[in-house]
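go over whats below:
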Amino acid sequence: MLWIRLKYRIKLLLNTLLFNIGFGKLLLKNRYGERILVFHGIDKVGETKYNSRFISKTYFETFIKHISTHYNIISLDDFYAKKFKPNTLNIALTFDDGYLNNFKYAVPILEKYNIPASFYITTIHEKANFLWADFLDIVSFHSKKETINFKGKTYVKNGKNEFINNGISLKKLAKTLPYEDIESLYEIFKLEWNCLPLKKLEDYWKLMSSEQIKAISDHPFFTIGAHGETHTNLKKINYSTANAEIKQSKLVLETICKTTVNEFAFPFGYYSSETIDYCKAIGFKKILLVDYENEDYKKDNIVKNRFVINPYITLEQQISYLLKGTYI
């Protein structure tokens, strides 16, 4: 992992140098291929102090305008059907989590440029009105606490506004826990969360309503897919609980959308062969990861990997990595 991060940083420096000395066009040369992109949050300014999930609506529109002008954007249905245009990059767009900001900012831009997209919704609404990772990111940043106790261990706040124990962040730990354990964090930070200007911060935590999800489902450009019930790591929790998370998210969305939901994207991109098999067994026809962990899945017509947008680099850099298909 350390070597991968180092290789990425070296590559980024080299790319930056090429752009600075006027050879960036070499990195922007069109290439044939296929990419499924994954976005998360869209906000007004591209805030990255809480996490790496948000890009600005201005950046998003500039990006959409560029790729729709120079490459071939297709629906996920057409991507799976391999309806690719030769001699260019073929791109399908996806959005994870089900944020309200997708409905507010992304949808109007997609409509403006006639761009299809798929939205993967976390159906946590009956248990909370936010995702636990957003709650923890925001409240950790604003918390005045220096230490907290969680599951018998003391976590100390560092200069990056993370709570750490023996080099492991509270968020990293939470990615290994079932939702029932994560839920206890709400009580620890309850008072501080309720004191925050939540309306002002809603772009970073608020989820779409059932009515907004239905409106996207009914739209001719868009499709709705499932993303689990509580956004837990389905690879780390027990098999029966993971299955229940997957099935419940499908059933809730089918009730809201009044149609079959046959797309599933794994939270955090974490999966196991058992959870993939279960997704297939209950009728998902499109299963989306982030990275292939098993070479066999590259040959699986149902399972596809995706390319994650990086909010920390320039548009030119982003396009160059997109064309290459990797950050390393």
